[in-house]
Amino acid sequence: MLKRVMSKRSLFVFVLFLFLLPLATAHGFETKGQDCAKCHTLGNDEARELLKGIIPDAKIMDIRISPVKALWEVFLESRGKKELFYVDFSKKYFIPGHIISINEKKDLSRERLIELNKIDVSQIPLQDALIMGDPEAATRIIAFTDPE
After folding, report:
1. Residues 95-130: tens digit of each pLDDT
2. How many other CB atoms sit within 10 Å of the CB of residue 66?
3. What is the topology classification, in CATH, of domain 36-121?
């Protein structure tokens, strides 16, 4: 009787092991050196099509792999506002919000938005500007006003 119970228990553990084995390797691509972006792609037109029901007036500015693997970072402009959103590799989920690194305690989405919205001050035409103070000062402040 004990031998039969042990045999059934061993069979059950073996079958359970066979079912759980694929789950253990499902997320191993990154450590195996495989680049998921080679198989998964998302272009501007496809992103616009995916998001048209959620953000109909979206103008896709840039798409790249996000800091979180298996997500694309979609930089877009809608109603005059530039934002970051995320789309998963299966193209079934649209994720608004920020990605925050737990280890570094940094808001990676905010840092990326700052980088994307950076303005090259040297490209601003100053020939019609009203200059106050030393024009050769190390720190310059540029103020924009609308006279109307």
Report:
1. 998 999 999 999 999 999 988 888 887 788 878 788
2. 21
3. Nuclear Transport Factor 2; Chain: A, (3.10.450)
